[in-house]
Amino acid sequence: MQRRSSGYWVRRAIWLLFVYGLLLFTVLLTALPFFWMVTTSLKERAAVHRIPPQWIPNPALWQNYVEAWNSAPFGRYFFNSFFIALTTTVGDVVTSIPAGYALAKMTFLGRGVILALLLGTLMIPGQMLLVPTFILVNRIGWYNTYQVLIIPWTAGVFGIFLLRQFFKTVPDELWDSARIDGCSRLRYMFQIAVPLIRPGIATVALLKFVASWNAFLWIIVMTDKVELRTVPVGLRFLQMEMGDYHHLLMAAATMAIVPILVLFFFAQKQFIQGIARTGLK
Amino acid sequence: MKLPVPQAWKSRRFWRETLEAYVYLLPTLAVLGLFTFYPFINAFLYSAYDIGTRTVPGEPVLTVTAGAEEWAGALRRGRIPEPLVAFLAERYRVDPEQLWVRLREANRWVLRDEGGKREFVVLRESEVLTVRPAVTRWDLRPVGWKNFQAVLADRDFHKALLNTTKYVIISVPVTLALALLLATLLNQAVRGRGLFRTANFLPYITPWVAVAMVFRWIYNRDIGLLNYLLSAFAGLFGQEVSVLDWLNDPKLALPALILMQVWRFTGYQALILLAGMQGIDREYYEAARVDGASAFQTWWRVTVPLLTPQLFFLLIISLIGSFRIFEEVMILFMGAGPENSGLTMVYYIFRKAFESGHYGPASAASVILFAIIFALSLFQLTVVQRRVHYER
User: B11, B19, B26, B32: best mutation site toward chain A, by most A Cβ within 10 Å?
Assistant: First the structure.
């Protein structure tokens, strides 16, 4: 290490103060809407309208959450959200594993064509497919059903390509020796290769779950039954029904984000690494 | 003439592997084929058709001969015969409370099941009554380029195109510039970097419907947080600001939308840029230090140029993503915004198709949207990928 003058350390301290000051400010800006949501959700109706605003609700009305929960069939909404997110996630992982494996490790006729075809779908904006899919769904009688909310989302190009990248890192020698021992490819894939790429599968599953939880447009186009609404769709209808009951709307919004935030805090590493990785592709 | 056959084609193992690979790919190809490729082709096809729907009676599920006259009498008075209610309740799980006679004609009645959003038709032919579930028929009539002409002449479409373009041109560079600054700060802060990174990343993972509802509340004209903070801030300097009506002033709708989107995406983009910054080889910084570069020079001449792969990646995906903006508008403004100031291309498609039932013009607008996004993707594939990936 070379020696630095005392002036250097002073400048360095000021710089770090500046850096951390600004970072704290960005965290404040990020946190403010969350804080405001939770604060509002605990206020009395009259306190919501007070200016200057009450920063800490007094008294804190946890009752608002009960009232918000009872103002719409939220039990059903949450069941639908969990059910659809879980089934599409499992479906996506189950179809992406063999597809990703085949594209990473097997040589076969038409491999280039399939790869190009799958890459090409990334350029298709989903909204472009709404009208033709809506007509198709009506024709096959899937309008207002669970299958229209699940089946079309059980395969995805994103998962296939991510798992393909991971499968590529598995050494070929493993397959060679497994084959000599008389192991079938299917068994090798699920019993040996899949455990080796667990982080990749976790990333695909997490991102899929979140995307599925947040789905909105597809659901309002392909269904119009209360029984099929998910949490975000239910929120929108609640918003239309009770325009200025801000405290109840914010309580409902808080309930809607809690499952995703809990998931995020438990699997932070996979989320962050997964997303940083997609950026580096 | 004999064509040359690739060596691999002669081996039986190659063909067995090909068969096996397609078995593995089958589930994916089946789902994507039905719900992506097939609709994709249809999107182009439908843009050349006038598409309308008609409700027609389907195949009979119940035939009544004895008592047909009593049934018809009840239906004429708007009542539904008990046995019919029981039949529909058992076979179609119709809730009797939700069932009513929507249409009464001489020999034809339409029953609507409000709960199941279904209809049933009762037809009387001579002495026989038949009950049939209603089916929707899609009528397609070719119209050539008419849909495109209609869309391109539609002032709402111009507005949608203009709004979307404005939104993209402002929000994309603003978010990216702020993300670059944030990533730089995060890169400087060695202690607590992970914590700050996570905090800034949270908006991206938060369900956006909830976010849009919170922002709608924050933007409230009279009792919203934003206007309160603005006036409190101005008050510090003894100034007064006029009350801004974020949600109802056509001039402010786009800024309100952009502010929310910047809040949502800056942390996510910063995360990707930070990962890029940490991948930069220390040697470059050593070299810059030896050459006596200032901190700013090092950042501008070393860090930023070496980040071009990440910057371009983010630029392209946020360009493409921003052209698809719609759902956030719907929640934030509970509609298309004041004077359609939040009407975007996808909103236009949605409205045409699912609010007015003009599926043909909606398909034409979808094709135009696709053309724009396709051009951007091609730009990324050809120009950017070749010029940017000089490293690694």
Answer: B32
Domain A72-241 falls in which CATH fold? MetI-like fold (1.10.3720)
pLDDT, tens digit (0-9, with 9 covering 90-100), for B261-298:
999 999 999 999 998 898 888 888 889 888 888 888 88
pLDDT digits (tens, 9 = 90+) for A28-66: 999 999 999 999 999 988 888 887 888 888 888 899 999
Domain boundary assignment for chain B? 55-137, 147-388
Q: Tell me the C-alpha to C-alpha distance, in Å, between residue A265 and each of A215, A270, B206, B319.
A: 21, 10, 12, 30
Query: CB of B327 within 8 Å of any CB in chain A?
Result: yes
ipTM: 0.91
User: What letter does residue A228 receive in the DSSP assignment?
Assistant: G
Residues 9-28 of A with CB under 8 A from B: 15-16, 19-20, 22-23, 26-27
**What's the rounded Cα separation, in Å, for the pair B35 and B56?**
26
The single-letter code of the amino acid at A174 is: L
Task: Indicate the pTM of the whole model.
Answer: 0.88
The residue whose two tokens read 């790429």 is A197
Chain B hits for A261, CB-CB cut-off 8 Å, are 202, 205-206
- A197 CB within 8 Å of a chain B CB: no
Residue ranges of domains in chain A: 6-63, 72-241
Instruction: Report whether A181 contacts A191 (CB < 8 A).
Output: no
- Closest Cα partner for B181 from B311, B319, B318, B287? B311
A57 alpha-carbon distance from chain centroid: 31
Most B CBs within 10 A among A49, A131, A220, hence the mutation to make, goes to: A131
Burial class for B251, CB neighbours closer than 10 Å (0-12, 13-18, 19+): exposed
Q: How many Cβ atoms are within 10 Å of B324's Cβ, its own excluded? A: 18
Distance, C-alpha B224 to centroid of its chain: 28
CA–CA min distance B70, chain A (Å)? 33
Give the residue from A139, A219, A111 showing the smallest Cα distance to B24. A111
**CA nearest to B34, candidates A121, A136, A150, A146:** A136
Least CB-CB distance to B205: which of A185, A254, A260? Answer: A260
In A, which residues are within 8 Å of B326 by CB distance?
127, 217
Q: Of B110, B115, B56, nearest to B78 (Cα)?
A: B110
List the structure tokens of A73: 């069939």
- Contact of B357 with B241, CB cutoff 8 Å: no
What class does CATH assign to B147-388? Answer: mainly alpha
Q: Where are the alpha helices (DSSP H) in B279-326?
A: 282-290, 295-298, 304-306, 308-323
| d(CA A12, nearest CA chain B) in Å | 11
Nearest to A260 by CA among A197, A208, A200: A208
Per the listing, tokens 């009797």 go with B96
CB B92 within 8 Å of CB B116:
yes
Computed over every residue of chain B, the mean pLDDT equals 89
